[in-house]
Every structure is written in C-alpha cells, then in structure tokens.
Amino acid sequence: MQAAEILGIPVTEVRPTVGDTETAGYADVTGGSRTTYATGFAAVKAAENLIEVLKDRCSVIWSIDKNDIDFDNGSFFATKDPELKFTFKELAANLDSTGGPAAASGSVDLESAGGAFGTHIVDLDVDPDTGKTDVVRYTAVQDVGTTIYPAYCIGNIQGGVVQGIGWGLNEEYFMTKNGAQANTSYLDYRMPTALDLPNIDVVLVEKPNPGHPFGVRGVGEVPICPPIAAIGDALHNALGKRFYDAPMKPGRILNVLGKITD
Hints:
Elements: H1 2-7, H2 35-62, E1 69-72, E2 75-78, E3 81-87, H3 88-93, E4 117-126, E5 133-143, H4 150-170, E6 200-205, H5 226-239, H6 250-256
Parallel strand pairs: 5-6
Antiparallel strand pairs: 1-2, 2-3, 4-5
Helix pairs in contact: 4-5
C-alpha cells in the first residue's frame, strides 16, 4: 500500500510477494512492531528508486535528458514538452524497447523507532468469595501515527489486548521436577477465547510520526503490555489489595485476600 501510494497507482495493481530467508539477504526480525514501519519504509525507498529507473527509460524513449522529466500522480511527463507523457501502464507497455522489465530495490537502516503509545481502560467483575474475574468491558486507546489499513490496525490491537488479558488473568507455565513444561496443550494452557471476553473497543488516535514518510508508527506490540496493569488497578479498586504476581488467577486473589494460603 505504501509503495502504491508513492507510485500513484491503485493498490489492487500491486502484487506483493512474500519473501523468505532463501531468497532475501540479511534482514532484522519482523518483531517489535517494525513490519509496517520498517518494511514499509523500505518499500517506500524501493518505489522512489523505481521512479528514478523509469525516468531513465523515459529519457531513452523520448530522447531527452532525464533532468527534464518529472513524475506526479502515477504519470511521467516532459517538463518542456506537454505532448510527451506516459501513465505508469503506458510506460510499462514500452519497456521492452529500453531493455525489458525495470527493477529497483530499497533498504533502510533506521536511526529512530516507530514507537507508539496507548492507554487502556478495563471494567471487570470479581467475586471475592471465589476469586473469579470477568472482563465486562475493555477499551484500548492508541496513538497509531497514520493508519495505513484501519481494519487490520484495529484487529492487531484487539489481538494484543486479548494476549495481555491472558497474561494478566489466565496464562501460566507449570514445570515438572525435570524442568519440562507440564501444560503444553491448549487444553491445559488456559488462553482467553471469544467466550471469555467482550468485544474490545478500540480508539485510534492519529498523530503522524515525523520519522516516517507516511507518519507510520508501530502498533502490534503496544497493546500486549497495558492489560496486566489495567487489570491490576481494577482489582485494587474493587478489592483494596495490590497484586504483584501474574496471572491474577482465582487462587492468587483468594490468597491475597487472606482466604486461603499457598
């Protein structure tokens, strides 16, 4: 989408190919919310470089100097002759006479991060007799920079919230005496499901990141962290007790309330 924006062509006319370690050179991991930010930045650079390559091709076809060629909104045109003009598609159809398909690459070594900021609000019900906690409503507000694809952005935040709620309330490793994990299946490793949670309300705050051509910020990692703190604060408001260990499961809640002992 970011490359299409630079090239001035519909995103439906871009066919991305998913790379792998066999065909790509060395690159850093895609974690840390860097995919849209860093990979998108590289796609922007590749698109900008492709425009320069295509200007060279236009100069061959039109027999004019490259410096007399400009590009805007998906079209190449000669600055001194309004009759000389190619849309992106028209130029592509004439590339055979100039050496065949055009190619360009882009790479970045970013000096700044695409960090994002969020705040979460949770309403929950907790039973002081059983320690059972139910999330009634959850709202995540996040500064996402410029939203590239709103539906994916919202879904990413909702997924992170669910993971964070699992961290705060349910998910826990149990180890054997031999150091192996005892609960290795979804049956006994308790992850939240759609039956456990309400719809996650998401508010997107768009404050463009000045360090990215389109103002992009990382999104995916941020919403995993606040839920555990929000849940801890909500339990403190409800029960008057602070919780310093996760998950804040029923047994641990009853233990902090002094109703059972470990």
